[in-house]
């Protein structure tokens, strides 16, 4: 009997989508405004979901206070008000697309959360564009 528990979080960050191996022209054509050399920002909304069995004694799947503190310490403090390309070594070699940000967030959190539970990350880059990663 699996249950899912989710926690929402938020951070603001700047980025530029750019592939170093491509020409300026190719980058501009492919990424459009997202390739602007002077960066642009997003209000990222994050939903972290853990899935597993309810503990029969406590009635919890996970302590949401602990989860919220983990997301604050590991994700918000790391990425909030940062330029992902410049300030964050995680993206030194990785294009900071929503896809890659979600994968990196998942990897950072996965090692900190009990292996007994499954982990899913949903990252909204805009109200209408969001990506989902569950490690598969
Ligand atoms: Ni963007």
Describe this structure in words.
The protein is an alpha+beta fold. The protein has one domain: Tetrahydropterin Synthase, Chain A, CATH 3.30.479. It is built from four helices and five strands; from the N terminus they run βαβαβααββ. Strands 3-1-2-4-5 form a five-stranded mixed beta sheet. A hairpin with a 5-residue loop joins β4 (118-124) and β5 (130-133). The mean pLDDT is 97. It binds nickel (II) ion.
Structural key phrases:
alpha+beta, five-stranded mixed β-sheet, 30% strand, single chain, binds nickel (II) ion, 4 helices, Tetrahydropterin Synthase, Chain A
Q: What is the element layout, followed by pairings?
A:
Blueprint: E1 2-15, H1 24-31, E2 40-53, H2 64-79, E3 82-83, H3 84-87, H4 98-110, E4 118-124, E5 130-133
Parallel strand pairs: 1-3
Antiparallel strand pairs: 1-2, 2-4, 4-5
Question: Which segments are poorly predicted (pLDDT under 50) over 5 or more consecutive residues?
Answer: none
Number of strands: 5
Q: Oligomeric form of this entry?
A: single chain
Arithmetic mean of pLDDT: 97
Can you tell me the CATH architecture?
Answer: 2-Layer Sandwich
> Number of domains in the coordinates?
1
Ligand identities:
nickel (II) ion
Radius of gyration: 17 Å
Largest sheet: 5 strands, mixed
Tertiary shape: elongated
Figure out the total of helices.
4
Question: What share of the residues lie within helices?
Answer: 25-40%
For CATH, the homologous superfamily is named as: 6-pyruvoyl tetrahydropterin synthase/QueD
H/E series: EHEHEHHEE
């Amino acid at each position: 009997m699996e249950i899912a528990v989710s926690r929402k979080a938020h951070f603001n960050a700047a980025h530029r989508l750019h592939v170093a191996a491509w020409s300026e022209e190719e980058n501009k054509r492919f990424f459009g405004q997202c390739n602007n050399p002077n960066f642009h920002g997003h209000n990222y909304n994050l939903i972290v979901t853990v899935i597993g069995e309810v503990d029969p004694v406590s009635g919890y799947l996970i302590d949401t206070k602990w989860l919220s503190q983990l997301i604050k310490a590991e994700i918000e403090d790391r990425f909030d008000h940062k330029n992902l390309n410049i300030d964050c070594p995680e993206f030194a070699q990785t294009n900071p697309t929503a896809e890659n940000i979600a994968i990196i967030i998942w990897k950072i959190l996965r090692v900190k959360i009990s292996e007994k539970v499954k982990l899913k990350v949903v990252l909204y880059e805009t109200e209408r564009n969001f990506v989902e990663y569950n490690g598969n």
